[in-house]
Design brief:
This protein is α+β, with helices and mostly antiparallel strands. The chain folds into two domains: about 190 residues, 2-Layer Sandwich (Fructose-1,6-Bisphosphatase, Chain A, domain 1); about 130 residues, D-Maltodextrin-Binding Protein, domain 2, CATH 3.40.190.80. It is built from ten helices and 13 strands. An eight-stranded mixed β-sheet has the order 2-1-3-4-5-6-7-8, with helices on both faces. Strands 10-9-11-13-12 form a five-stranded mixed β-sheet, sandwiched between helices. Helix 2 packs antiparallel against helix 4 and helix 6 packs across helix 9. The longest helix is centred in the N-terminal third of the chain and has 21 residues. It is globular and about 50 Å long. The structure holds 2,5-anhydro-1,6-di-O-phosphono-D-glucitol (AHG) and manganese (II) ion (2 copies). One manganese (II) ion binds next to strand 3.
Length: about 350
């Protein structure tokens, strides 16, 4: 270990980084910066809840009410409440689409210029077992005039219109990774200081990799194109890595190289993942890092959403691997189309 490194200053805080970036845009009003800070603050609070979730489950340790005097709820509901509250109090957001709410949420901030789509807690099957989970968010500028509530049109924009997107991973350390369309940067949370610090500047997606991530337990239900691509990965002696938390699987492959897939299956014909708050934000990030995201046939970010909770198949990660998967999907497209009839 390089002991000299210990003498280095801890580095740039997320707040300072966001502020500096804002200086790059001379006419920026600072609202987007404030919005990103609101999200980071809610992430710290959620991080705290996650860290002590094991204790809260022990009967009597905290009682039936949490320290805020609210009834105990599942972590994904708690995370939803935290993020919505932060976005509402911040004032920059007029409307929120959340995985946890069927209808769009009007914050009451009719002057807010932004719309946020959020998966407050991703990786629900891993919440209670101390495995990495996350938060995914996507930010759009509203298209309707300010002064009134956000509209369906504001909420149904294609991913290419995102102005920022990011995720928080609550893992062996907690990180926030985001883009505003000018590269991707990662920040690690320092709990004793209560701050995120720039730890992963200019994240780039390796062109290729040797990891594939897919739920192979349901491989019988995969399209033929996916089966053939998975066989190809095995021929190449790739490693299989699948945690079952999209954020964690994506994050690993982003840093190390690899591909994550959630295809259409016989059971879920449009895949399982949601376009607005799972696929699009990660697609924006991966593209900004030099990678690729697709539904197997077209660029994820160009898909026109019809409903706020639309699902779509996802192939995401290193460019060469996503392109290879697309080749197989095209090759078997006719056979797969026949099979769903
Ligand atoms: P969420 O917890 O937000 O509902 O998302 C769960 C998603 C995603 O995180 C993960 O990759 C996928 O579901 C796992 O699904 P399977 O269990 O079907 O593999
Ligand atoms: Mn999710
Ligand atoms: Mn979720």
């Amino acid at each position: 270990m390089d002991h000299n490194k210990l003498a280095l200053p801890v580095g740039t805080t997320l707040d300072r980084f966001i502020m500096r970036k804002q200086e790059d845009f001379p006419y920026a009003t600072g609202e987007l910066s404030q919005l990103l800070r609101d999200i980071a603050l809610a992430a710290k609070i959620v991080n705290r809840e996650i860290n002590r979730s094991g204790l809260i489950d022990i009967a009597g340790a905290y009682g039936n009410r949490n320290v805020q005097g609210e009834d105990q709820q599942k972590l994904d509901v708690i995370a939803n409440i935290r993020f919505i509250r932060a976005l509402r109090n911040g004032g920059e957001v007029c409307t929120i689409i959340s995985e946890e709410d069927d209808e769009k949420i009007q914050t009451g901030n009719v002057q807010g210029k932004y719309v946020v789509a959020i998966d407050p807690l991703d990786g629900s099957s891993n919440i209670d077992v101390n495995v990495s989970i996350g938060t995914i968010f996507s930010i759009y500028r509203r298209v309707s005039p300010t002064g009134a509530e956000g509209t369906d049109q504001d909420c149904l924009q294609a991913g290419t219109h995102q102005v920022a997107a990011g995720y928080v991973i609550y893992g062996s350390s907690t990180m926030m990774v985001y883009t505003t369309g000018n590269g991707v940067n990662g920040f690690t949370y320092e709990p004793s200081l209560g701050e995120f610090f720039l730890s992963h500047p200019h994240i780039t997606s390796p062109k290729t990799g040797t990891v594939y991530s897919i739920n192979e337990g349901i491989s019988e239900d995969f399209p033929e194109g996916v089966k053939a691509f998975v066989a190809h990965c095995k021929d190449q002696h790739f490693s299989a890595r699948y945690i079952g938390s999209l954020v964690a699987d994506f994050h690993r492959n982003l840093l190390k190289g690899g591909i994550y897939m959630y295809p259409a299956t016989r059971k879920v014909q449009n895949g399982k993942l949601r376009l607005a708050y799972e696929c699009n934000p990660l697609a924006f990030i991966v593209e900004q890092a030099g990678g690729k995201a697709s539904n197997g046939f077209m660029r994820t970010m160009e898909i026109q959403p019809i409903g706020m909770h639309d699902r779509c198949p996802l192939f995401i990660g290193s460019t060469e691997l996503v392109e290879k998967a697309e080749e197989y999907m095209a090759q078997y497209a006719n056979a797969d189309a026949e099979a769903v009839k």
